[in-house]
Design a protein that fits this description.
Elements (H helix, E strand, L loop, with lengths): L1 E3 L6 E3 L1 E7 L15 E8 L2 E2 L7 H7 L7 E7 L8 E6 L2 E7 L7 H11 L7 E3 L7 E3 L4 E6 L3 E8 L2
Parallel strand pairs: 1-12
Antiparallel strand pairs: 2-5, 2-10, 3-4, 3-9, 4-6, 7-8, 7-11, 11-12
């Protein structure tokens, strides 16, 4: 998959775990939240960093450009999302490496909280924290996001 971004100033990669919702989820108790998950995948949460401010709307815009938010290559249904190695490479160099168990919140807590304020629907994708080591990428770079038990998502960066 190719990532494209015209006129960008600083575009960062952020390797993450993607959580894909299976069925309608509203006010899910924390101990039942993972029952609403169809599966997991790799996610590159591309961000145009130059427009990020403390205003949450700017962060949403910074992550919402066409070709951003790449995920794949597979959807895996039987993993423990709270204990997976995550690695992100830029041009073959390891930039991010961590385990999902070190996140601020467990995945069932995040889904529980989200379902309290919004209804999640089948095929919605929820992403959770990224390890330290995010950084800029430029046209010609190759970004790989690898999640244990899922595989590797490769993005070739280009400008159009």
């Amino acid at each position: 998959m190719q990532l494209s971004f015209p006129g960008a100033k600083r575009v960062d990669f952020e390797g993450k775990l993607a959580v894909v919702i299976k069925d309608r989820m509203k006010d899910a108790p924390e101990n039942e939240a993972l029952n609403h998950v169809l599966g997991y995948s790799c996610f590159n949460d591309v961000t145009e960093r130059s427009i990020v401010t403390k205003n949450i709307a700017d962060l949403i815009l910074a992550k919402g450009f066409d070709t951003f938010s790449a995920f794949g290559p597979y959807l895996v249904t039987s993993l423990d999302p709270n204990n997976l190695e995550l690695k992100t490479y830029l041009n073959g160099k390891l930039m991010q490496h961590d385990n999902t168990r070190t996140g601020v919140s467990r995945h069932q807590q995040i889904l529980h909280c989200l379902s309290q304020c919004m209804t999640l629907y089948p095929s919605d994708v929820v992403t959770t924290g990224t390890p330290k080591g995010i950084g800029p990428m430029k046209p010609g770079d190759v970004v790989d996001v690898e999640v244990e038990g899922i595989g590797r998502l490769r993005n070739i960066v280009r400008s159009y």
